[in-house]
Specification:
Number of strands: 16
Distance between the termini: 42 Å
Length: 377
Amino acid sequence: MPIKECTLPEGGKGWQWGDRGKCYASREDAEKQAEAARANGYVGDALSFDRSARIIDVDGRMHVAMSNISKATVNPYYGREIPCWEELQLSPDHIYNLLRDPGELAKAAGTFNNLPLLSIHKAVSADKPEKDLVVGSTGTDAEFSAPYLRNSLVIWDAAAIAGIESRDQCEISCAYRYKPVMTPGVYEGMAYDGVMTEIIGNHVALVEVGRAGPDVVVADAALAGPFLKGKTMPKANRKTVAVRAALKAYLRPMLAQDAQLDINKLVGEVKAATLAKDAQRIARDVLKHAKFAADKAKDEDVEDVVKSAAEEEAEDEDDEYGDVEYADTKNKKYPLDTEEHIRAAWDYIHKEKDADKYSAEERAAIEKRIVAAWKEK
């Protein structure tokens, strides 16, 4: 996409990468964002990160032609997370950086075909298939195209599809067996303590923040790595996500083919305390804005769909990060409230494009906070 003029938030002329980039005061900064996007896998609107990679079939299932599911990179792990850590004489609470080796990922590609896609991480087997957590499957097209392991996907659970479309749960995290070889080295400027070898896929999970980074997502151009970096993305609560999914499934057969209805925007936020009013509001707005092919939905039916979907989901106590610690306390970047966020923070701060924004002293302070947070988990 080209660099074009835009209007800065405070007014005045700025520069922006295509329609998705941030509006910068200088053209140079916009060009840097474009370079970063391409470095993270963005290859244009018609290819792998495009929303056109997704197809919704007549029964509401989502098919993804090809998506990044893992990545050759260096990530931090507790000693106790590493297989056979005791035999390797590793310290359980020490952080070890392991390389997900590109050659090993290439050899393992076939083992990531036909794997269950789960709503959360949990080891699965034929004896324990965890059927309640399965929301889809990987395809039969697994391939390694440096630095990514890629495959097609199918998602058949409405709530999971809504999470992807609303960007609440769209990053991908692979679970696999591997043999650690604790031989240190350097990969693309990142030092590591050991290498993952003999990788065998077990399952793939949809998560909010994946260890491999934000460029491993369910294919969508709007989610290329640089745009999520350091940002606190708004997260819908469970009831809201459930209502979005239920309404899409209910309304899809009734809508005209050219209907443009932004369900996420119409639903807004749904809470237990205001459910009756929320249901009335949503029904009113749906009937006001929807373009129906034939039979028009009724207010009371839409309200029932909203209430039924919301009542089946537990209420979230807190839908935002809230009052949490950040690795970068000045700019409030890299939240440290969960193990996944801590791992993501460590991954980001060791990427050249992120690390270069800080002085050596600032990076050391950020790393210190990440390590301290990790030890508390």
